[in-house]
Amino acid sequence: MHFYAVAFKKYPMRKFSLKTLCALLLSIIFLGCSATKTATKSTDGKVVYLKDNWKFSRKVTGDAFTTNYNDAGWQTISIPHDWSIYGPFDKKWDMQKVAIVQNGETEASEKTGRTGALPHIGTGWYRNTFTLPQFKNGKRALLVFEGAMSEPQVYLNGKKVGEWGYGYSYFYIDITNDIIAGKENTLAVKLTNKEYSSRWYPGAGLYRNVSIVVKEPESFEQWGTFITTPVITPNAATVNIKAKATGSNIYLVTTIKDAKGKVVAATTNKTVSGNQYEQDITVAKPNLWSPETPYLYTATTQLFTGGVLKDEEIIKFGIREIKYEANKGFSLNGKITKFKGVCLHHDLGPLGAAVNKAAMRRQLTILKDMGCNAIRSSHNMPSFEQLELADEMGFLFLAESFDEWVKPKVENGYHRFFNEYAEKDLVNLIRATRNHPSIVMWSSGNEVPDQYGAEGIERAKFLQDIFHREDPTRPVTVGMDQVKQTMQSGFGAVLDIPGLNYRVHLYEEAYKSFPQGFILGSETASTVSSRGIYKFPVVQAKEKQYHDLQCSSYDLEACSWSNVPDEDFVLQDDKPWVIGEFVWTGFDYLGEPTPYDEKWPSRSSYFGISDLAGLPKDRFYLYRSRWNKDAETLHILPHWNWEGREGQTTPVFVYTNYDSAELFVNGKSMGIRRKSNATPQNRYRLMWMDVKYEPGTLKVIAFDKDGKIAAEDEIHTAGTPFKIVAEADRNTISADGEDIAFVTISVVDKNGVPCPTATNQLKFNVTGNGTYRAACNGDATSVEMFHEPTMKLFSGKLVVLVKATNNPGKIELEITGDGLEAAKINLKSIQ
Ligand code: GAL
What is the mean pLDDT of residues 55-77? Predict the structure, then answer.
């Protein structure tokens, strides 16, 4: 490990305290670790994606795995596919009668929407019949699953060829001896979701890609290549490629191209140790990868024997250096960088768990605008698509693995698989994704009950050692909720990165008690709100419930264990040893409808900074005002349509990056407010607490540091809904059968003023070369199905998803509603 020399030169041994030693060890391990990547989609025909013409059924009689089985009556679908997102919503699905101990509950009660109230429980079968011209006798074939929910049993041509446990794992099966060359093959996959196996909506089915990789006998090992950049200077970077390959007399030729496709370095050599090949290649004047400059290189490594090309890997990677140091924190390319991150569950709202790149790109675009620079894939393996986007768009990534180890949280959770699968699951996670420059930290667990007990410490070490063995370049964290316990037991001390979930009151003590010299807010906030809903009086509250099962968007409500954003901001801003935060969550997700876990029809979360449709809640602007340093934020809340509240106290908040502002109601000044340190809220929000409501205009004027007018904004009381308005995130999409345009629909009054409380029932019709895919209004209590072409507005808005077909051309979406002027929007798809 050449990293040692650098570190020891910098820090002479005799000066070390225990804390510094531990911290040094950490910086030794991760100093100089840098970039990497993993192969994305192969374009050379060796990876064949089994996307279309799948047969699917949940009502199976007989042996559905046999070749001659009659599946003619089954549904024809394409994957990625989530069988349960089509509903119907019903509180009976997976109703869990439990005490959620993590939430401090002691008595069991019925949790109706905990896993989304969608029919994911039970068995589903998928069958696909294919011929594979690429496969000839003498070649090898691997069947790759990027995730299958869950407990997949895999049959090829009537024979069981493999199985797995965890629904989030990537795995592959060697089918060389079972696939028939030149003939039809029948693949059958059985998936089973048990009740009480999740704390959130897991989805169901083949929700990520399935492919077959065809290889020569002399070829690279699947996920066996590891690219790092151990030495980086402004003049040159060393790119180290370690590849595992089978076959004799192999040599490798690697070419590195820059982002424009220009060859910048190449090497032909072979350094062999067993079946491992290693190359060092120098890239002059490297462009470094960072969230601001997500620069990617491409390494093409070709494998030859006797002058014949046998295999080729095309791997995108970045050049970047990460360090974690006591009292300094995390630095990227030498610059101290705080994680301004969000946690994300894997579902994509109205699309369910079925992976879709356009939906994820939209999420990341929204997060980028907020100034977010990091994602935590809570609490499981991220999709390959999400990592590719994080590399391309510039997000730091905390890749997590498990929500349970051996001790259960839910009756049928991951603890059933831990002993048999934990190592295999981690090995596949790490090997398949370690080349992504975006990944800067791993997580072996979230709030695992194994935080208690000596065996838990052993398990933490066991898992962390696997990460270190497979990837010595990145540290490992665990999101801990039992912070006191982990301080006393030594659990927190064994981790590379101590991650605290919530418990802001323990940060200082944890920092002093843990040896690492810094702490991470691995999960923060868990503030709850419903987009466009405001409750009075405006007061801070925990576990607050209302009759309409909504939460207030004044952003002052949280759970017993959690807090409002400003309390995290104080620590993030004032304590250099806090290396950042991952807010729970960037977007609302299906399931876990806290604080209405026991109330029907709540079926999705209230934690999101944006709602389930991806529409920003007010909180979005609070984070943006602090995180996005490049853009102006000036946002007024609440809306100003309060018929019946005339003369009553209706506080007004402004989220802005400016320090002070003046508020006017119908031209009358309500005074100037300036940010101050009086309370966390006063420090980050401008608040006029005693405004009396009168219809009309709310106007805010913000001032810069010199007191000069810097920006202004106003909102108006709207009249009755008159006309529908539609706006697409992208008007041109790809004609690839998967791309999606997200069209935000709202209504305005006669004067064009948006109607913030409208709940009109709308209908959608798509014509041309696109299809209606789904709609979502962000209402956590709605039981309207996403795929039906009608939905009510919630707080005046909803989003329609229009999907491309494989044919390029015009697409038209028409939106109608009783008594409203209809809207039409023209989109197009191109090849
Ligand atoms: C955390 C947990 C998350 C989610 C969150 C809600 O304790 O890690 O998965 O349940 O609470 O506040």
Answer: 96
Q: Please report the pLDDT score of residue 311 as a whole number.
A: 96
Residue whose CB lies within 8 A of the most ligand 1 atoms, among 559, 592, 596, 606, for a mutation test: 592
Report the separation in Å between the CA atom of 732 and the middle of ligand 1, taken as the mean of its atom positions: 38
Catalytic residue annotation: 447, 523
116 C-alpha to ligand 1 centroid (Å):
15
d(CA 785, CA 787): 6
What DSSP designation does 129 have? E
pLDDT score for 19: 41
Confidence of residue 417 (pLDDT cuts 50, 70, 90): very high
CA angle 736, 742, 748 (to 5 degrees): 150
Task: Reduce the DSSP state of residue 53 to 3 states and report it.
Answer: coil
Ligand 1 atom with minimal separation from the 592 CA: 10
For residue 507, what is the enclosing H or E element? helix 507-513
- Dihedral (C-alpha) 110, 794, 558, 687: value to the nearest 10 degrees? -160
CB 170 within 8 A of CB 142: no
Cα(539) to ligand 1 centroid in Å equals: 23
Considering only 20-24, 219-223, 732-736, 739-743, which range has the smallest mean pLDDT? 20-24
pLDDT level of residue 61 (50, 70, 90 thresholds): confident
773-777 LR contacts (CB < 8 Å, sep 24+)? 773/350, 773/351, 773/740, 773/801, 773/802, 773/803, 774/350, 774/351, 774/800, 774/801, 775/350, 775/799, 775/800, 775/801, 776/349, 776/350, 776/612, 776/613, 776/614, 776/801, 777/613
DSSP 563-598: --HHHHHHHHHH-TTEEEEEEE-SB--BS--TT-TT
Cis amide leading into 88 (omega within 30): yes
- How many other C-beta atoms can be found within 10 angstroms of the C-beta atom of residue 580? 22
Question: Rounded CA gap, 671 and 376, in Å?
Answer: 41
**Nearest protein CA to atom 3 of ligand 1, as residue:** 584
pLDDT score of 23 = 41
CB atoms within 10 A of CB 175: 21
Residues flanking ligand 1, CB < 6 Å:
102, 379, 446-447, 481, 501, 523, 526, 559, 562, 584, 592, 594
| Residue 526 CA, closest ligand 1 atom number | 12
Structure confidence by residue, pLDDT tens digits, 288-297: 999 999 999 9
322 has pLDDT over 50: yes
Helix (H) or strand (E) holding 670: strand 668-674
Tell me the CA–centroid distance for residue 200 and ligand 1, in Å.
Answer: 10
Q: What is the pLDDT of residue 10?
A: 23
Angle between helices 454-470 and 418-433 (to 10 degrees): 30
Distance of CA 558 to the CA centre of its chain: 22
106, 112 Cβ separation under 8 angstroms: no
List, in sequence order, every residue forming a beta bridge with 279; answer none if it has no partner. 241
Distance CA 152, CA 65 (A): 13
Is 6 a residue whose pLDDT tops 80? no
For residue range 112-135, what is the model confidence (pLDDT) as tens digits? 999 999 999 999 999 999 999 999
For the CA atoms of the chain, what is the radius of gyration? 27
| Cα(354) to centroid(ligand 1), Å | 22
From 96, 102, 503, mutation site for ligand 1 pocket: most ligand atoms within 8 A of C-beta: 102
User: How far does the chain reach from its first CA to its final CA, in angstroms?
Assistant: 48
**Mean pLDDT in the chain?**
94
Please give the Cα distance from 436 to 35 (Å, whole number).
Answer: 7
Q: Is 663 helix (H, G, I), strand (E, B) or coil?
A: strand
How far apart (Å, rounded) are the C-alpha atoms in residues 720 and 165?
54
User: At CA 147, angle to CA 143 and CA 150, rounded to 5?
Assistant: 110
- Give dist(CA 549, CA 110) in Å, integer: 16
Using 50, 70 and 90 to split pLDDT, how confident is the model at 306? confident
